[in-house]
Specification:
alpha+beta, Aminopeptidase, seven-stranded mixed sheet, three-stranded antiparallel sheet, 14 strands, 35% helix, transmembrane helix, LytR/CpsA/Psr_CW_biosynth
Length: 391
């Protein structure tokens, strides 16, 4: 399927670059909605509040609602300001590190790996947003980290979160070491970050009344089974001592409950391209939640928005780089609802190193450099196949 390049940032330099390549930017979209309506599952409460920003138009209302948000320093030494890049993120390009963890009750806070690693890039024009996934199994050099007494070494990318969380480092330590690892291996630094407990978003999806998802490949769940008609995690099912049936996600589109959508988006074994297909499914979930939120009345009903805020507020930790959350939201509310573009590292295929880990292809390293230089739009013009299709 051929996918047209996304609308470029509105600047003369950008427009000139596109014309030189013989491509004409598509017309501007007339219908616009807040940033939250496209990234709900990723930034949760922050983006839920974005809807309130568009509705209520009052920073005082937003400020009072953000009291339930857990904030922490998730970037540490990898902030753009400390790296000599950027400045005020609301006046330039914005890069956020988004980390997904599966923090079930039986797991200790320091026994987690970041199974989802996404960079959210918003160009200086603030009229586009890009999601760039970093494969969890990417071979990376993890730098030493004094906070958790980690000496450094080579490992999979997702292990950086684990090593940073040890010895009292906690989630903040895990995120900081992850940010430092990505910076050391790709050059990308960040304005802020969010740690998302995907299990916690079950309540958000339930508050939305489920989401419509399209299963592209039949896949058997590695995490859940049916017991007496109820879906349970394997560990919970074993405790019942009752017969179980596998949870199988069949090809087709349907409205999924919270547990089902999250379970499907977590599967990677049994899929043709493994973790890359899982990344596509997780990005599909982002858009599915956004569409449902846009059509469910949450954008026009402060009560529903508040319910979603409370549900999402329990599912993540946020770092806005020192910018007040309400200012951050208002600074981004002009981004159009359909301006989220999902990009594939390594073109969505496994690039192994022979040891069960991945390497980053030269083309993907160029993409990471384009993020640093705020030239992602130009990169896509010359590499349109990095765009992930929604179908």
């Amino acid at each position: 399927m051929t996918v047209a390049p996304p609308r470029p940032p509105q600047s003369q330099d950008r427009a000139a670059a596109v014309r030189q390549d013989g491509l004409v930017p598509p017309p501007l979209k007339k219908r616009r909605s807040p940033l939250w309506a496209r990234l709900t599952v990723v930034l949760g409460t922050l983006l839920m509040l974005g809807s309130a920003a568009g509705l209520v138009g009052s920073k005082m209302v937003i400020a009072s609602a953000t009291g339930a948000i857990t904030t922490d320093d998730l970037i540490g030494d990898s902030k753009k300001s400390s790296a000599g890049k950027g400045g005020d993120p609301l006046k330039g390009p914005i890069d956020l590190l988004l980390l997904g963890v599966d923090a079930r009750k039986r797991w200790a806070v320091d026994d987690l790996r970041a199974d989802t690693i996404i960079v959210l890039h918003i160009p200086a024009s603030h009229d586009q947003a890009y999601l760039v996934s970093i494969p969890r199994d990417t071979h990376m050099q993890i730098p030493p980290f004094a906070r958790s007494n980690y000496a450094g070494g080579a490992n999979k990318a997702n292990a950086a979160f684990f090593f940073g969380a040890q010895n009292g480092g906690g989630w903040a330590g895990g995120a900081q070491l992850m940010a430092q690892t990505i910076k050391a291996n790709t050059g990308m630094s960040f304005d802020g970050a969010a740690i998302i407990d995907f299990a916690g978003f079950k309540s958000v999806i339930e508050a939305l009344g489920g989401v419509r998802m399209c299963v592209k490949q039949r896949v058997k769940s590695r995490h859940m089974v049916w017991v007496d008609g109820k879906a349970l995690f394997l560990a919970e099912a074993r405790k019942t001592g009752k017969p179980t049936k596998p949870v199988v996600h069949e090809v087709g589109c349907k409205n999924m409950e919270g547990w089902e959508a999250l379970d499907y988006s977590r599967q990677r074994y049994g899929l043709k391209n493994g973790d890359y297909d899982r990344q596509d499914n997780q990005r599909q979930l982002i858009k599915a939640m956004a569409k449902k939120a846009s059509s469910s009345g949450a954008l026009t009903n402060p009560l529903k928005a508040t319910q979603l805020i409370k549900a999402a507020g329990k599912a993540f930790v946020l770092d806005t780089g020192g910018v007040p959350v309400q200012d951050f939201i208002f600074g981004l509310k002009g981004i159009a609802a359909n301006d989220l573009v999902m990009l594939r590292t390594n073109k969505g295929t496994f690039a192994g190193n022979g040891a069960g880990q991945e390497t980053i292809t030269p083309e993907s390293m160029e993409m990471f450099k384009a993020v640093q230089e705020d030239k992602v739009g130009e990169f896509i013009v010359n590499h349109p196949d990095v765009i992930s299709s929604e179908k």
